[in-house]
Design a protein that fits this description.
It is built from 15 helices and 11 strands. By secondary structure, it is α/β, with parallel strands linked by helices. The strands form 3 sheets. It has a 7-stranded mixed β-sheet, with helices on both faces. Helix 4 packs parallel to helix 5, helix 7 packs antiparallel against helix 8 and helix 7 crosses helix 10. It is globular.
C-alpha cells in the first residue's frame, strides 16, 4: 500500500504491506551510485538480498554503523563524511538507510548536509525505527550523554516498511510495543485498549504481527508526531546523565522513560488513568519494572528537570489529549518516584 504522509510542508511516500523484495523490484535502480547505511547486524542479514536488486549499470557501497540505538552520534557523523569523500559529485546518487532508529537519523542527516545530488530512501526494520523515520526531525548527538548537537528537518523521498522484518524480531517486539503505546497515550485511548486486547500475554506478543496497527500509526504521527516522539524522552535521556545509568540497557531506559513520565502525569498532574493495571500488564509481558538500586533517584530527578527546562514536558489532560507544556518540580518528581516504587512493591506482594 502507498500512503502520502505529510507533516507541515514536508511530505513523503510511505509504502507498506509488502515485502522488501516486492518493493525493490518496483523501483528503477539503473545508473545510480547507491550509498547504503546500515547497522552491522542488518548488513549481515540483508547485504546479499539487497545486492540482487541492483542492476549492473549501478554500483553500491555500504557505510556500516554499530548496532547501538543512538548510532547517530558525532563519531559516526564524521566517519560518514570521510566515507563520502571517495565518490565523485558527478554521479547520480541514491542514499538508502536500513536498520534501527539511529540509522534513520544518520542517513537522513547526511543526505541533507552533503553536497551530493541524491535521492533518499529509508528502510526501517522495526516499528520504533519506522516511527523515527516519520518524525522528519533529524539529530546528531554526543555519544556519552545523547545531547543533541545538530538538528535539521528532512523528509525522505520514500519510506519502505516491510512489517515482516519487525515481526521476525523477538525481544525487539517489546520495544516496538512501547512505540505503539506512545501513540495511544498521546492520540487515542481506544488504541491503547486495542493493544491490550491483542497482546494480553508475552506469548501472543511474540506470535502476533503489528501489521494491523501500521495504518492508524501513520495517522497519529501525521497529526501528533512531535508529541509522540517526545513523550518519555526527557525521562529516558536523564538516565544517560545520571551516575550508574549504564546499569540500564538503552531499551530499558526507553521503557522507564515512558513509565515514569506517565506516572508523573498520574500522580503529580492528576491524570485519570489506571496506572496500576497498566504496569501489571507490562509485567505480565515480561518487562523489567524494578529500577536498579545504585541509581540515585535524587540525581536522576535533577537531570529530568534540567532537560525539561530546555524542552518542557507536555502534560496530559487525559489519555489521547495533550495539554500545556510545563517543567516538573523536585517535589513532584520525589512524589512520582515514591509512588512508583510503592506500586511495584504492592504488585510484588499480590
Amino acid at each position: 500500500m502507498d500512503f502520502t504522509y505529510q507533516q507541515n510542508e514536508l511530505k513523503t511516500q510511505v509504502t507498506y504491506g509488502e515485502t522488501v523484495a516486492s518493493m525493490m523490484r518496483e523501483k528503477d535502480l539503473s545508473n545510480y551510485q547507491i550509498i547504503i547505511c546500515g547497522n552491522q547486524r542488518y548488513y549481515d542479514l540483508y547485504a546479499d538480498k539487497l545486492a540482487q536488486f541492483i542492476p549492473k549499470s549501478s554500483r553500491h557501497d555500504w557505510f556500516i554503523t554499530t548496532n547501538n540505538h543512538y548510532c547517530n552520534d558525532m563519531n559516526h557523523f564524521k566517519d560518514f563524511i570521510f566515507f563520502l569523500k571517495r565518490f565523485s559529485q558527478q554521479e547520480k546518487f541514491l542514499f538508502i538507510g536500513i536498520g534501527n532508529e539511529g540509522v534513520m537519523e544518520l542517513t537522513a542527516f547526511l543526505h541533507h548536509v552533503s553536497n551530493l545530488t541524491a535521492e533518499l530512501w529509508l528502510l526501517p526494520v522495526s516499528i520504533r525505527a519506522f516511527a523515527q523515520s516519520l518524525t522528519f526531525q533529524r539529530q546528531v548527538v554526543l555519544a556519552g550523554t545523547i545531547q543533541p548537537v545538530m538538528e535539521i528537518d528532512e523528509a525522505p523521498d520514500g519510506i519502505l516498511f516491510d512489517h515482516t522484518m519487525a515481526d521476525q524480531q523477538s525481544e525487539g517486539k517489546m520495544v516496538d510495543l512501547l512505540s505503539l503505546i506512545r501513540c495511544g497515550v498521546i492520540s487515542d485511548h481506544s488504541f491503547m485498549q486495542r493493544l491490550y486486547s491483542n497482546y494480553p500475554t508475552r506469548q501472543l506478543l511474540m506470535q502476533r504481527s503489528f501489521s494491523a496497527f501500521i495504518e492508524p500509526m501513520l495517522g497519529y504521527y501525521q497529526e501528533n508526531g512531535k508529541a509522540i516522539k517526545q513523550f518519555g524522552k526527557n525521562f529516558e535521556l536523564a538516565f544517560y546523565r545520571t551516575e550508574n545509568g549504564h546499569l540500564l540497557s538503552n531499551s530499558m531506559k526507553n521503557m522507564f522513560g515512558l513509565l515514569l513520565e506517565l506516572c508523573w502525569n498520574v500522580h503529580a498532574r492528576g491524570l485519570h488513568f489506571n496506572f496500576k493495571n497498566f504496569v501489571i500488564w507490562l509485567g505480565q509481558l515480561g518487562y523489567p519494572l524494578t529500577l536498579p538500586a545504585p541509581i540515585s533517584l535524587g540525581e536522576y530527578g535533577q537531570q529530568v528537570i534540567a532537560l525539561a527546562q530546555e524542552d518542557p514536558l507536555a502534560a496530559l489532560e487525559s489519555v489521547g489529549i495533550v495539554g500545556k507544556r510545563c517543567v516538573p518540580t523536585q517535589k513532584e518528581l520525589i512524589q512520582t518516584f515514591e509512588e512508583y516504587q510503592n506500586l511495584i512493591e504492592e504488585i510484588r506482594g499480590t
